[in-house]
Amino acid sequence: MTTHRLATVLSVLLGLACLWFAYGGLFTPEAFASGFGIPSLPQGDAVGFLTVKAGRDLANGAIVLTLLALGRRRSLAWVTLLFAMSPCVDAFAVLTHGGTYAAALGIHASTCAGMLLTAGLLFASSSESGTVRSNSVEREGNRILDRSSL
């Protein structure tokens, strides 16, 4: 499997996983909370945490799949690299709210590692002839933002 294809497959899986987590947070919060690594479903106002996380996951999945569909692999690489912060914070949340190290590392730290790997593969597969393409304004389709025309 080529680097390009592997990066594409991992990106699709990342986007779909985010959408799946959003669905779980919105429609099956009991199962979602335990799968997240928090030992019990939050009660009262704290249950809003699941809705916030579901909203974040919904947006993340939509962004990943949209950038992939538009062929913006370089932009997707940067977004994936930045999105890798989320599972790191999630691991911290698990550890500080009664979760186990196994859940924090096995679920969230491994997700972060997978996202970093995907970002690296996207960066590697968005290059031409071994050199990185310039991130020109014109190539990204934003001619109106080209400073040379100002």
Which structural class do the helices and strands define? mainly alpha
Basic shape: elongated
Oligomer kind:
single chain
The total of beta strands comes to: 2
Distance between termini?
Answer: 45 Å
Question: How would a textbook summarize the main sheet?
Answer: 2 strands, antiparallel
Give me the side-by-side strand order of the main sheet: 1-2
Average per-residue pLDDT, rounded, comes to: 84
Residues in helix, %: 55-70%
The stretches of 5 or more residues where confidence is low (pLDDT under 50) are: 128-133
| Cα Rg | 18 Å
Give, in order, the helices and strands. HHHHHHEE
How many helical elements? 6
Amount of beta strand: under 5%
Task: Describe the overall structure.
The protein is mostly helical. It is 69% helix and 3% strand. It contains 6 helices and 2 strands. It has helices at residues 3-27, 29-36, 48-69, 73-83, 85-96, 101-125; strands spanning 127-128, 131-132. It has a two-stranded antiparallel sheet. β1 (127-128) and β2 (131-132) form a beta hairpin. α1 crosses α2 (29-36) and α4 (73-83) runs antiparallel to α6 (101-125). It is elongated, with a radius of gyration of 18 Å.
Reconstruct the topology from this structure:
Blueprint: H1 3-27, H2 29-36, H3 48-69, H4 73-83, H5 85-96, H6 101-125, E1 127-128, E2 131-132
Antiparallel strand pairs: 1-2
Helix pairs in contact: 1-2, 1-3, 1-6, 3-4, 4-6, 5-6
